[in-house]
């Protein structure tokens, strides 16, 4: 059998720096766990624009459709701010998501004990926190028609349309229930059925999928604004949350920040199953290209490393190895390794991007 395939798109800014650390970890799995990947690497974002005049070349797009998983660093930077909207670095990322039809965006919010003091909330509220937010990613108000800025009498009107079909709700609801079965068997669905018809349909469809296909999963519904309050008041009441594109954008950012730095946050975007039964998948850190620290060896590689751990779990059926990697990260943090973003006001000197990566490798070695 051939090795599982992985397309790596480091992108711009700190993307290549954090990805270099992931490459070390991928090599480690090949050498020490007999888990070799067919890795190919290509351009996305500003660097692709510089070379090809487009943020995502068709050949790269085609490759992304074929591989078992795509791992992306970050795109963008001030150099590209004045480019036309159609060729901006972000368009490369949006094209990947759209053409791979990645409708379920997985955003874990997990608090590592060593960083509990770093949260903006009290330690006992976040210590041990481990929740998963699933955001619908390919429909809703960011895509609905009609949209635009129109002239209406003497003034202009800006219009966006929240639109969800039953099948769009069904498939992301299933992602939520499947995730719940893999975790605490508890799913909370969030919308605003009190004021939005699309929310009424959302609630009805999620309930039906639950009743007919997942009666074993404990399902609850919450208005998204109440959800925001509950997430800040007592986030540990949740396990898996499923919600739409707009509310998911806000709630996943909110939940993520409960746990500390942007440099710690992984994500996965999953689509429909391929011929091999695995979902189409794109893994990426939540952060951007961080031009303010790019090229200085300051970036925290953990978000990208944890994104690879998600790939091990969700694309390669290697949950045990994903846990091994997450535990290695946990150990490194417990041992006091901190990149600059994890230090706040403390007077300690930070470790560099590559020192953090090396520490994770050493912790992986120690796990054998
Ligand atoms: P950003 O996430 O790049 O940076 C925000 C702040 O967090 C900066 O101070 C940065 O230094 C810090 N930071 C981010 N990641 C870090 C890490 N791994 N370690 C340590 N510190 C880290 O967001 P910003 O500044 O709004 O955007 C910068 C560029 O990135 C823009 O061109 C933007 O369009 C792009 N971007 C790309 C994304 C992606 O590729 N998915 C997502 C967000 C922004
Ligand atoms: Mg956001």
From TrEMBL:
* Marked site: Important for catalysis: 142, 192
Per UniProt, subcellular location reads as: Cytoplasm
What InterPro entries has UniProt attached to this entry? IsoCit/isopropylmalate_DH_CS, IsoPropMal-DH-like_dom, Isopropylmalate_DH
Query: Which pathway does this chain act in?
Result: Amino-acid biosynthesis; L-leucine biosynthesis; L-leucine from 3-methyl-2-oxobutanoate: step 3/4
Q: Quick one: which residues bind Mg(2+)?
A: 225, 249, 253
Show the PROSITE patterns listed in the entry. IDH_IMDH
Reactions catalysed, semicolon-separated, are:
(2R,3S)-3-isopropylmalate + NAD(+) = 4-methyl-2-oxopentanoate + CO2 + NADH
Q: Which UniProt keywords apply?
A: Amino-acid biosynthesis, Branched-chain amino acid biosynthesis, Cytoplasm, Leucine biosynthesis, Magnesium, Manganese, Metal-binding, NAD, Oxidoreductase
Q: Is NADP among the key words of this record?
A: no
Q: What is this protein called?
A: 3-isopropylmalate dehydrogenase
Q: Which organism is it from?
A: Puniceibacterium antarcticum
């Amino acid at each position: 059998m051939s090795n599982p395939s992985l397309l790596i798109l480091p992108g711009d800014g700190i993307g290549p720096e954090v990805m270099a650390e992931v490459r070390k970890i991928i090599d480690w799995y090949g050498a020490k766990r007999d888990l070799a990947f067919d890795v190919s690497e290509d351009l996305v974002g500003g660097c692709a624009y510089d070379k090809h005049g487009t943020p995502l070349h068709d050949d790269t797009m085609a490759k992304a459709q074929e591989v078992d998983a795509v791992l992306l660093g970050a795109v963008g930077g001030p150099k590209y701010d004045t480019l036309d909207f159609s060729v901006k670095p972000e368009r490369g990322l949006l094209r990947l998501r759209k053409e791979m039809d990645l409708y379920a965006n997985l955003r874990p919010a997990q608090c590592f004990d060593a960083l509990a003091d770093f949260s903006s909330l009290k330690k006992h509220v976040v210590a041990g926190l481990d929740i998963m937010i699933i955001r619908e990613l390919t429909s809703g108000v960011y895509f609905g028609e009609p949209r635009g800025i129109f002239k209406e009498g003497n003034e202009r009107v800006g219009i966006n349309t929240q639109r969800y079909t039953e099948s769009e709700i069904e498939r992301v609801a299933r992602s939520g229930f499947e995730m719940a079965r893999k975790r605490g068997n508890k799913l909370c669905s969030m919308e605003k059925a009190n004021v939005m018809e699309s929310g009424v349909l959302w609630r009805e469809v999620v309930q039906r999928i639950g009743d007919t296909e997942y009666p074993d999963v404990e399902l609850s519904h919450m208005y998204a604004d109440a959800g925001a309050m509950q997430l800040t008041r007592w986030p540990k009441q949740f396990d898996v949350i499923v919600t739409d594109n707009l509310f998911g954008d806000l709630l996943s950012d909110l939940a993520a920040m409960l746990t500390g730095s942007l440099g710690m946050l992984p994500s996965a975007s999953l689509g429909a199953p391929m011929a091999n039964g695995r979902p189409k998948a794109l893994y990426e850190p939540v952060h951007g290209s961080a031009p303010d620290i790019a090229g200085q060896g300051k970036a925290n590689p953990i978000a990208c490393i944890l994104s690879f751990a998600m790939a091990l779990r969700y694309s390669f059926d290697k949950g045990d190895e994903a846990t091994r990697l997450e535990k290695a990260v946990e150990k490194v943090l417990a041992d006091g390794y901190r990149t600059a973003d994890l230090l706040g006001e403390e007077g300690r000197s930070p470790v560099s991007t590559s020192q953090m990566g090396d520490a994770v490798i050493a912790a992986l070695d120690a796990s054998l």
